Amino acid sequence: MDRPRFSDHLEAIKFICKDFWSELFKKQIDNLKTNHRGTFVLQDNKFRWLARMSLDPSLETPGSIQDPVAMAENKVAQAIGMHLYFPCGIIRGALSNLGIPCAVSADISNLPACSFVIRIKA
Where do the TM regions start and end (predicted)? Predict the structure, then answer.
């Protein structure tokens, strides 16, 4: 409330990376990348909500023809993806309240690192 409105999308994203993320997770975003055409990638190298994720091996389906390792990896990705809907929604809601409509998705190629991809809607 003490600040003037952001003049461009980059300033709002920087606010999310520094101030907003610090309030939520007690640390800043580790890396911010942009293509300067409405796509931003926020990377958190030790995303706190994924630090202790594991999968119960008993969840595998017995008698399946598929590779068990591939099935386990798929289930892990699904479980982690479910846990990332909420932080994606938090980012989207914060930007929406700043007057920036966007779509947010998450990438988890290297746990516990997590990348949030923000695409600004024109």
Answer: none
Indicate the pTM of the whole model.
0.80
Count: domains in the chain:
1
Q: Which phi and psi angles does 105 have, rounded to 5°?
A: -135, 165
Mean per-residue pLDDT pooled into runs of 10, the chain (122 residues): 79 94 94 95 91 59 58 74 92 94 91 92 84
Domain membership of residue 99 as a residue range: 9-53+68-120
Structure-block tokens of residue 83: 């846990």
Residues 64-97, buried b or exposed e (16+ Cβ, 10 A)?
eeeeeeeeeeebbeeebeeebeebbebbbebbee
